[in-house]
Amino acid sequence: MKKLLSVEAGGNALHLAALFVRIAAAALMLSHGLPKLSYLFSGSPIQFPEVFGMRSDVSLMLTVFAEVICSVFILFGLGTRLAVIPLIITMLVAVLLIHSADPFAKQEPGIQYLILYVILFITGSGKYSVDYLLQRKQQAGIVWINR
C-alpha cells in the first residue's frame, strides 16, 4: 500500500511507462496512417485538406510521413524526440485548423495524441529503446578512445 501512495517513480517505472506510451501511441497512430499511405499510392485523385497553401498531395505526403514513418521510429525508440516533432505539428494542424469548427468530441483524439507526443518529447524513449542502445554504444566508444 505504501508503494501505491508513493510519489517517487522508482527503478524502471519511468522507462516502462515510456515504453508503454511509445508502443501504444505508435500502434494507434499507425492505424490512422496506414490507410492514408494506401490512399496515397492508390492512384485515385487525392482529396485531402490543403494546409498552409500546400497542395493536397503534398499535405497528404507530409501527414503520411508523420503518421507512418515517424510512428515506426517511435515504436522502436529510434530518434524519438525528433520523430515526435512532425507528429506534434500534425496533431496541432488537425486540432487547430482541420477540426477547428468541429465539436470537441471530434478534436479530442488529436488532443490526446498531442499529449502523448509532448510527454515523449519531454521524457525521451527510455532505456528500452534503440536510442538507449546507441547511446550506450557511443559512450563505450568514447571510454575506449580515452584509454
UniProtKB/TrEMBL annotation:
<dbReference type="Pfam" id="PF07681">
    <property type="entry name" value="DoxX"/>
</dbReference>
<feature type="transmembrane region" description="Helical">
    <location>
        <begin position="12"/>
        <end position="34"/>
    </location>
</feature>
<feature type="transmembrane region" description="Helical">
    <location>
        <begin position="83"/>
        <end position="101"/>
    </location>
</feature>
<dbReference type="InterPro" id="IPR032808">
    <property type="entry name" value="DoxX"/>
</dbReference>
<keyword id="KW-1133">Transmembrane helix</keyword>
<comment type="similarity">
    <text>Belongs to the DoxX family.</text>
</comment>
<feature type="transmembrane region" description="Helical">
    <location>
        <begin position="58"/>
        <end position="76"/>
    </location>
</feature>
<keyword id="KW-1003">Cell membrane</keyword>
<keyword id="KW-0812">Transmembrane</keyword>
<dbReference type="InterPro" id="IPR051907">
    <property type="entry name" value="DoxX-like_oxidoreductase"/>
</dbReference>
<feature type="transmembrane region" description="Helical">
    <location>
        <begin position="113"/>
        <end position="130"/>
    </location>
</feature>
<keyword id="KW-0472">Membrane</keyword>
<protein>
    <submittedName>
        <fullName>Putative oxidoreductase</fullName>
    </submittedName>
</protein>
<dbReference type="GO" id="GO:0005886">
    <property type="term" value="C:plasma membrane"/>
</dbReference>
